[in-house]
Amino acid sequence: MEKPVYYAATEGGDYAFAVSAAAMKFGAGVLAELGDDARAQGLKRVALFIDPEVADTAPAEVATASLKRAGIDAVVYDEIAVEPTDTSFLAAADFARDGKFDGFVSLGGGSTMDTAKAANLYATHPADFLAYVNLPYGEFRAVPGPLKPHIACPTTSGTGSETTSTAVMDITALKVKTAISNRMLKPTLALVDPTTTRTLPAGVVASTGFDVLTHAIESYTARPYTTRSRPKSPDQRPVFQGANPYSDVGSLEAIRLGGKYLVRAVENADDHEARHMLMLAATMAGLSFGNAGVHLPHAMSYGVAGLCHTWRAAGYEKAAPMVPHGIAVVLNAPTAFRFTAAAAPERHLAAAEALGADTRNAAPEHGGELLAGRLIEMMRQTGLPNGTGALGFTEADIPDLVERGYNQPRLVVLAPCNVTKDDVAAMYRNGLRYW
Ligand SMILES: [Fe+2]
């Protein structure tokens, strides 16, 4: 199906895709160049957002020493919520506004980078919180102009937030997880140093690693941009525009790298090669899905995370009572891909093959099952729960899950087929238990 859909738009479909590339530097030891990069951006006084879990580790030492060497005044902010909320974003924005900084540096996982993005946004272009939040919860208002420079330094190989235009948070009063998505939010530079992941606990590598894999598989199997509705004006073309020739390349390679290195990176913290390559997979997936988007597994994860059932699996207690994002996503992935495969069988087969499934003699219609099967195999190998049932969800939770998971139009629309509420209910039901 790939060649015809990219050759010409379908009736009313979009005829163009945009690549909003992120500046990125990748390599073991590159964090020590932070000060030089900040100076090159013309920065003299920065807000340094640090994940409290990272504050006393070697990467924090390297980053602060590098800024100091470059003569840059850095003020640390470490009140980062594990799962950010509207309240935590606004508190960070107050800090950013009061500090009169000329730029931002973030060091940590997705929550830290997202908090810095939001602080930069609301300090630079103040507005009511919901003004910039995605529909249907917010107004999705255009950001009036560029933000201040932001150098994002990830310390987990997961979210890809360092190269994306999205900041994810809970709106506490509504008990929903949603996001701010705007091209202005994209960090000015992503400084990706894989050595920062060497000390991560196995549980964090697993949850963030499966986030990487789902980013890559979802963007590869997303609705092609040519079948997404044509925007009324060019500025309304969404960040998440559907699968396209640019994102396909990085997505497929990220799937291949994840299939080869994720289990090894979880099993052995001393396997530096595996952790290095998983970080590369995360970066490539981030660059790709940042332009293409993700669909059902991520949409459905908002239901799981929003309902916040107690997290009970051994080895993940640190995140309790939150369900780590990557886990909330991947638990919905096999059931979602079994559903979406019929709409794009060859893509699902190609993803299964890249992930390491044995696809010899397989017909395209087996793609969904092979992809789901290989994912389940990797989930078992890394000690993940056997479905959302293991988190405490039952049949009785399905209406609530559907309410939250389906109400993510930006994501649901990118599934390669039309999706009803009943479809989502059936997917949640089939994801309660895999083995
Ligand atoms: Fe994700």
Task: Give a short overview.
The protein has 16 helices and eight strands.
Provide an overview of this structure:
The chain folds into 2 domains: 29-192, Rossmann fold; 201-430, Dehydroquinate synthase-like - alpha domain (Dehydroquinate synthase-like, alpha domain, Up-down Bundle). Helix content is 44%, strand content 9%. It is built from 16 helices and 8 strands. Strands 1-8-5-4-2-3 form a 6-stranded parallel β-sheet, with helices on both faces. It has a two-stranded antiparallel sheet with strand order 6-7. The chain is globular. 57% of the residues are buried. Bound molecules: fe (ii) ion. Fe (ii) ion (FE2) is lined by residues 159, 211, 215, 298, 325, 329.
Please identify, by name, the CATH architecture of the largest domain.
Up-down Bundle
Please write the CATH class name of the largest domain: Mainly Alpha
> Helical segment tally?
16
Number of strands: 8
Please outline the helices and strands.
Layout: H1 2-7, E1 24-26, H2 34-40, E2 45-50, H3 58-69, E3 73-77, H4 86-99, E4 103-108, H5 110-124, E5 150-154, E6 166-171, E7 176-181, E8 189-192, H6 202-221, H7 245-267, H8 272-292, H9 296-307, H10 325-330, H11 333-340, H12 345-355, H13 367-381, H14 398-406, H15 409-412, H16 421-430
Parallel strand pairs: 1-8, 2-3, 2-4, 4-5, 5-8
Antiparallel strand pairs: 6-7
